[in-house]
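**Paired protein data**
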Amino acid sequence: MGTRSRYDVGVAAPYRLDLTVSVLRRLSTNVVDVLTSEGQYVHAFGSAHGPIVARVAQVRFDTLKIAIESEARAAAEHPEVLALVRRMLGVDRDIAHFARAAHAIRWLRPLARRMRGVKPPRYPTLWEAFVNAIAFQQVSLQAASTIVRRLIVALGTPFEHEGTQLYLFPSAERVLGATDGVLRTAGLSAAKIGTLRRSGEALVSGALGEAMLENKASPEAAMRLREIKGIGPWTATLILLRGLGRLDVFPMQDTSVARNLALVAGDVPIDVPRLLTALSPEQGMLYYHLLLARLEARGEVGRMSR
Protein backbone atom coordinates (compact mmCIF):
# COMPACT_ATOMS: atom_id res chain seq x y z
CA MET A 1 0.00 0.00 0.00
CA GLY A 2 1.44 3.29 -1.05
CA THR A 3 -0.99 6.14 -0.24
CA ARG A 4 -1.99 7.22 3.25
CA SER A 5 -4.38 9.98 4.32
CA ARG A 6 -4.41 11.24 7.90
CA TYR A 7 -7.28 12.98 9.65
CA ASP A 8 -7.89 14.48 13.08
CA VAL A 9 -11.55 13.87 13.82
CA GLY A 10 -13.43 15.64 16.58
CA VAL A 11 -15.93 13.51 18.50
CA ALA A 12 -19.03 14.25 20.53
CA ALA A 13 -17.54 13.97 24.02
CA PRO A 14 -17.53 11.99 26.20
CA TYR A 15 -16.13 9.34 23.89
CA ARG A 16 -14.22 6.08 24.43
CA LEU A 17 -12.92 4.17 21.47
CA ASP A 18 -12.23 0.99 23.45
CA LEU A 19 -15.82 0.72 24.68
CA THR A 20 -17.35 1.51 21.30
CA VAL A 21 -15.17 -1.05 19.50
CA SER A 22 -15.94 -3.65 22.17
CA VAL A 23 -19.66 -3.22 21.48
CA LEU A 24 -19.11 -3.32 17.72
CA ARG A 25 -17.01 -6.50 17.64
CA ARG A 26 -18.48 -8.26 20.73
CA LEU A 27 -15.61 -10.72 21.35
CA SER A 28 -11.87 -10.32 20.87
CA THR A 29 -11.93 -13.32 18.49
CA ASN A 30 -13.62 -11.12 15.87
CA VAL A 31 -11.27 -11.14 12.84
CA VAL A 32 -12.80 -8.16 11.00
CA ASP A 33 -12.92 -5.55 13.74
CA VAL A 34 -9.42 -5.64 15.21
CA LEU A 35 -8.15 -3.96 18.37
CA THR A 36 -4.35 -3.89 18.62
CA SER A 37 -2.17 -4.10 21.73
CA GLU A 38 -1.71 -0.31 21.45
CA GLY A 39 -5.48 0.22 21.61
CA GLN A 40 -5.82 1.07 17.93
CA TYR A 41 -8.86 -0.05 15.96
CA VAL A 42 -8.13 -1.49 12.51
CA HIS A 43 -10.68 -2.36 9.82
CA ALA A 44 -10.30 -3.26 6.14
CA PHE A 45 -12.77 -2.24 3.44
CA GLY A 46 -13.06 -3.69 -0.03
CA SER A 47 -12.85 -1.60 -3.19
CA ALA A 48 -12.45 -2.14 -6.92
CA HIS A 49 -8.76 -1.25 -6.50
CA GLY A 50 -7.93 -3.53 -3.58
CA PRO A 51 -8.26 -3.25 0.21
CA ILE A 52 -8.47 0.08 1.99
CA VAL A 53 -7.32 -0.04 5.61
CA ALA A 54 -8.47 2.36 8.30
CA ARG A 55 -6.49 2.63 11.54
CA VAL A 56 -8.04 4.61 14.40
CA ALA A 57 -6.45 5.83 17.64
CA GLN A 58 -7.87 8.00 20.39
CA VAL A 59 -5.36 10.70 21.23
CA ARG A 60 -7.59 12.93 23.40
CA PHE A 61 -10.99 12.69 25.02
CA ASP A 62 -12.46 14.67 22.11
CA THR A 63 -10.24 13.63 19.17
CA LEU A 64 -9.53 10.55 17.10
CA LYS A 65 -6.64 10.17 14.68
CA ILE A 66 -7.69 8.19 11.61
CA ALA A 67 -5.18 6.97 9.02
CA ILE A 68 -6.53 5.50 5.77
CA GLU A 69 -4.15 3.58 3.52
CA SER A 70 -4.50 1.93 0.12
CA GLU A 71 -2.91 1.57 -3.27
CA ALA A 72 -2.59 4.95 -4.99
CA ARG A 73 -5.40 4.28 -7.46
CA ALA A 74 -7.88 3.89 -4.56
CA ALA A 75 -6.89 7.20 -2.91
CA ALA A 76 -9.98 8.97 -4.30
CA GLU A 77 -12.10 6.71 -2.07
CA HIS A 78 -10.43 7.79 1.19
CA PRO A 79 -12.98 10.55 2.02
CA GLU A 80 -15.81 8.06 1.53
CA VAL A 81 -14.11 5.55 3.82
CA LEU A 82 -13.52 8.29 6.40
CA ALA A 83 -17.25 9.07 6.43
CA LEU A 84 -18.01 5.37 6.84
CA VAL A 85 -15.58 5.01 9.77
CA ARG A 86 -17.13 8.05 11.47
CA ARG A 87 -20.55 6.46 11.12
CA MET A 88 -19.36 3.03 12.28
CA LEU A 89 -17.82 4.47 15.44
CA GLY A 90 -20.69 6.84 16.24
CA VAL A 91 -18.40 9.84 16.63
CA ASP A 92 -21.19 12.35 16.04
CA ARG A 93 -23.91 10.67 18.11
CA ASP A 94 -25.21 12.62 21.10
CA ILE A 95 -26.74 10.29 23.69
CA ALA A 96 -27.13 12.83 26.48
CA HIS A 97 -30.77 11.85 27.02
CA PHE A 98 -29.84 8.24 27.76
CA ALA A 99 -27.08 9.37 30.11
CA ARG A 100 -29.50 11.53 32.10
CA ALA A 101 -32.20 8.85 32.17
CA ALA A 102 -29.74 6.11 33.20
CA HIS A 103 -28.38 8.31 35.99
CA ALA A 104 -31.90 8.51 37.45
CA ILE A 105 -32.15 4.69 37.69
CA ARG A 106 -30.31 3.55 40.81
CA TRP A 107 -29.25 0.06 39.66
CA LEU A 108 -28.26 1.27 36.15
CA ARG A 109 -26.30 4.33 37.31
CA PRO A 110 -23.04 2.52 38.28
CA LEU A 111 -22.87 0.69 34.93
CA ALA A 112 -23.58 3.89 32.98
CA ARG A 113 -20.79 5.63 34.87
CA ARG A 114 -18.29 2.85 34.16
CA MET A 115 -19.24 2.79 30.48
CA ARG A 116 -19.37 6.56 30.06
CA GLY A 117 -18.14 7.38 26.57
CA VAL A 118 -19.52 4.39 24.68
CA LYS A 119 -21.29 5.42 21.48
CA PRO A 120 -23.68 3.36 19.35
CA PRO A 121 -21.67 1.63 16.62
CA ARG A 122 -23.01 0.66 13.23
CA TYR A 123 -21.95 -2.01 10.80
CA PRO A 124 -20.46 -0.62 7.57
CA THR A 125 -23.09 -2.38 5.43
CA LEU A 126 -26.64 -3.58 5.85
CA TRP A 127 -25.46 -6.99 4.61
CA GLU A 128 -23.06 -7.34 7.53
CA ALA A 129 -25.94 -6.53 9.90
CA PHE A 130 -28.04 -9.27 8.29
CA VAL A 131 -25.27 -11.86 8.56
CA ASN A 132 -24.61 -11.15 12.22
CA ALA A 133 -28.28 -10.95 13.22
CA ILE A 134 -29.11 -14.24 11.48
CA ALA A 135 -26.07 -16.01 12.93
CA PHE A 136 -27.01 -14.87 16.44
CA GLN A 137 -30.57 -16.20 16.27
CA GLN A 138 -31.24 -18.46 19.29
CA VAL A 139 -27.62 -19.31 20.07
CA SER A 140 -25.11 -18.10 22.64
CA LEU A 141 -22.72 -15.19 22.23
CA GLN A 142 -19.76 -17.57 21.99
CA ALA A 143 -21.43 -19.94 19.51
CA ALA A 144 -22.69 -17.18 17.23
CA SER A 145 -19.33 -15.40 17.24
CA THR A 146 -17.64 -18.67 16.28
CA ILE A 147 -20.07 -19.16 13.38
CA VAL A 148 -19.44 -15.66 12.02
CA ARG A 149 -15.69 -16.09 12.40
CA ARG A 150 -15.74 -19.41 10.50
CA LEU A 151 -17.83 -17.85 7.73
CA ILE A 152 -15.40 -14.94 7.37
CA VAL A 153 -12.33 -17.19 7.38
CA ALA A 154 -13.94 -19.49 4.78
CA LEU A 155 -15.24 -16.81 2.40
CA GLY A 156 -13.53 -13.53 3.31
CA THR A 157 -10.27 -12.23 1.86
CA PRO A 158 -7.29 -12.43 4.26
CA PHE A 159 -4.22 -10.22 4.08
CA GLU A 160 -1.60 -8.75 6.38
CA HIS A 161 -1.13 -5.05 7.04
CA GLU A 162 1.73 -3.73 9.18
CA GLY A 163 1.98 -7.02 11.01
CA THR A 164 -1.77 -7.29 11.63
CA GLN A 165 -3.83 -10.11 10.09
CA LEU A 166 -7.00 -8.66 8.55
CA TYR A 167 -10.01 -10.01 6.67
CA LEU A 168 -12.40 -8.37 4.25
CA PHE A 169 -15.97 -9.27 5.19
CA PRO A 170 -17.38 -11.57 2.45
CA SER A 171 -19.84 -9.85 0.12
CA ALA A 172 -23.41 -10.99 -0.38
CA GLU A 173 -22.45 -12.21 -3.86
CA ARG A 174 -19.61 -14.28 -2.40
CA VAL A 175 -21.87 -15.93 0.18
CA LEU A 176 -24.64 -16.52 -2.36
CA GLY A 177 -22.09 -18.27 -4.58
CA ALA A 178 -20.98 -20.61 -1.79
CA THR A 179 -22.37 -24.10 -1.49
CA ASP A 180 -24.65 -25.09 1.37
CA GLY A 181 -21.86 -27.42 2.47
CA VAL A 182 -19.49 -24.51 3.06
CA LEU A 183 -22.16 -22.62 5.02
CA ARG A 184 -23.04 -25.70 7.08
CA THR A 185 -19.37 -26.21 7.92
CA ALA A 186 -19.33 -22.68 9.33
CA GLY A 187 -22.09 -23.79 11.70
CA LEU A 188 -25.20 -22.39 10.04
CA SER A 189 -28.36 -24.47 10.18
CA ALA A 190 -30.46 -25.19 7.09
CA ALA A 191 -33.03 -22.61 8.25
CA LYS A 192 -30.38 -19.92 8.73
CA ILE A 193 -28.81 -20.71 5.36
CA GLY A 194 -32.20 -20.19 3.72
CA THR A 195 -32.73 -16.88 5.54
CA LEU A 196 -29.23 -15.72 4.66
CA ARG A 197 -29.73 -16.55 0.98
CA ARG A 198 -33.11 -14.81 0.82
CA SER A 199 -31.65 -11.73 2.53
CA GLY A 200 -28.64 -11.64 0.22
CA GLU A 201 -30.82 -11.99 -2.86
CA ALA A 202 -33.06 -9.13 -1.70
CA LEU A 203 -30.04 -6.85 -1.22
CA VAL A 204 -28.24 -7.84 -4.42
CA SER A 205 -31.39 -7.46 -6.55
CA GLY A 206 -32.20 -4.06 -5.08
CA ALA A 207 -35.54 -5.25 -3.71
CA LEU A 208 -34.26 -4.09 -0.32
CA GLY A 209 -31.64 -1.49 0.47
CA GLU A 210 -30.29 0.84 3.12
CA ALA A 211 -31.69 4.00 1.54
CA MET A 212 -35.13 2.41 1.34
CA LEU A 213 -35.11 1.61 5.06
CA GLU A 214 -33.56 4.94 6.09
CA ASN A 215 -36.66 6.71 4.81
CA LYS A 216 -39.00 4.66 7.00
CA ALA A 217 -39.83 5.00 10.68
CA SER A 218 -38.51 2.12 12.76
CA PRO A 219 -41.84 0.20 13.06
CA GLU A 220 -42.39 0.43 9.30
CA ALA A 221 -38.77 -0.52 8.54
CA ALA A 222 -39.08 -3.53 10.86
CA MET A 223 -42.21 -4.68 9.05
CA ARG A 224 -40.38 -4.41 5.72
CA LEU A 225 -37.51 -6.53 7.05
CA ARG A 226 -39.94 -9.12 8.36
CA GLU A 227 -41.26 -9.69 4.84
CA ILE A 228 -38.17 -11.85 4.36
CA LYS A 229 -38.94 -15.37 5.54
CA GLY A 230 -36.85 -16.15 8.62
CA ILE A 231 -36.58 -12.54 9.79
CA GLY A 232 -38.70 -12.24 12.93
CA PRO A 233 -39.22 -9.34 15.36
CA TRP A 234 -35.96 -9.93 17.26
CA THR A 235 -33.82 -10.21 14.11
CA ALA A 236 -35.45 -7.16 12.51
CA THR A 237 -34.84 -5.12 15.68
CA LEU A 238 -31.17 -6.13 15.79
CA ILE A 239 -30.71 -5.18 12.13
CA LEU A 240 -32.28 -1.76 12.80
CA LEU A 241 -30.10 -1.24 15.88
CA ARG A 242 -26.76 -2.44 14.53
CA GLY A 243 -27.28 -1.91 10.80
CA LEU A 244 -29.13 1.41 10.73
CA GLY A 245 -28.12 2.91 14.07
CA ARG A 246 -31.71 3.15 15.33
CA LEU A 247 -31.73 3.70 19.08
CA ASP A 248 -35.53 3.79 19.40
CA VAL A 249 -35.69 -0.02 19.31
CA PHE A 250 -34.84 -2.74 21.83
CA PRO A 251 -34.65 -6.53 21.24
CA MET A 252 -37.29 -7.59 23.77
CA GLN A 253 -37.16 -11.25 22.73
CA ASP A 254 -33.43 -11.54 23.43
CA THR A 255 -33.02 -14.44 25.85
CA SER A 256 -29.80 -12.94 27.20
CA VAL A 257 -31.51 -9.69 28.25
CA ALA A 258 -33.02 -11.19 31.40
CA ARG A 259 -29.66 -12.72 32.39
CA ASN A 260 -27.82 -9.47 31.73
CA LEU A 261 -30.41 -7.44 33.62
CA ALA A 262 -29.97 -9.79 36.58
CA LEU A 263 -26.19 -9.41 36.27
CA VAL A 264 -26.49 -5.62 36.50
CA ALA A 265 -29.54 -5.12 38.74
CA GLY A 266 -29.18 -8.09 41.06
CA ASP A 267 -32.39 -8.75 42.97
CA VAL A 268 -34.02 -5.42 42.09
CA PRO A 269 -37.39 -6.13 40.42
CA ILE A 270 -37.54 -4.54 36.97
CA ASP A 271 -40.59 -3.55 34.96
CA VAL A 272 -38.98 -3.76 31.50
CA PRO A 273 -41.68 -1.84 29.54
CA ARG A 274 -41.56 0.96 32.11
CA LEU A 275 -37.75 0.95 31.98
CA LEU A 276 -37.74 1.25 28.18
CA THR A 277 -40.25 4.10 28.34
CA ALA A 278 -37.98 5.96 30.77
CA LEU A 279 -35.03 5.53 28.39
CA SER A 280 -36.98 6.28 25.19
CA PRO A 281 -36.15 7.31 22.49
CA GLU A 282 -32.63 5.98 23.13
CA GLN A 283 -33.54 2.64 24.71
CA GLY A 284 -31.22 0.87 22.27
CA MET A 285 -28.31 2.13 24.38
CA LEU A 286 -29.53 -0.14 27.18
CA TYR A 287 -28.84 -3.12 24.91
CA TYR A 288 -25.26 -1.94 24.42
CA HIS A 289 -24.75 -1.29 28.14
CA LEU A 290 -26.06 -4.74 29.06
CA LEU A 291 -23.73 -6.24 26.45
CA LEU A 292 -20.81 -4.31 27.95
CA ALA A 293 -21.71 -5.60 31.42
CA ARG A 294 -21.54 -9.13 30.08
CA LEU A 295 -18.27 -8.48 28.25
CA GLU A 296 -16.84 -6.85 31.38
CA ALA A 297 -17.63 -9.99 33.37
CA ARG A 298 -15.75 -12.04 30.74
CA GLY A 299 -12.73 -9.72 30.68
CA GLU A 300 -13.48 -8.81 27.07
CA VAL A 301 -13.87 -5.01 27.27
CA GLY A 302 -10.97 -3.40 25.42
CA ARG A 303 -9.16 -6.73 25.13
CA MET A 304 -6.56 -7.05 22.37
CA SER A 305 -7.81 -9.06 19.39
CA ARG A 306 -6.85 -12.72 19.39
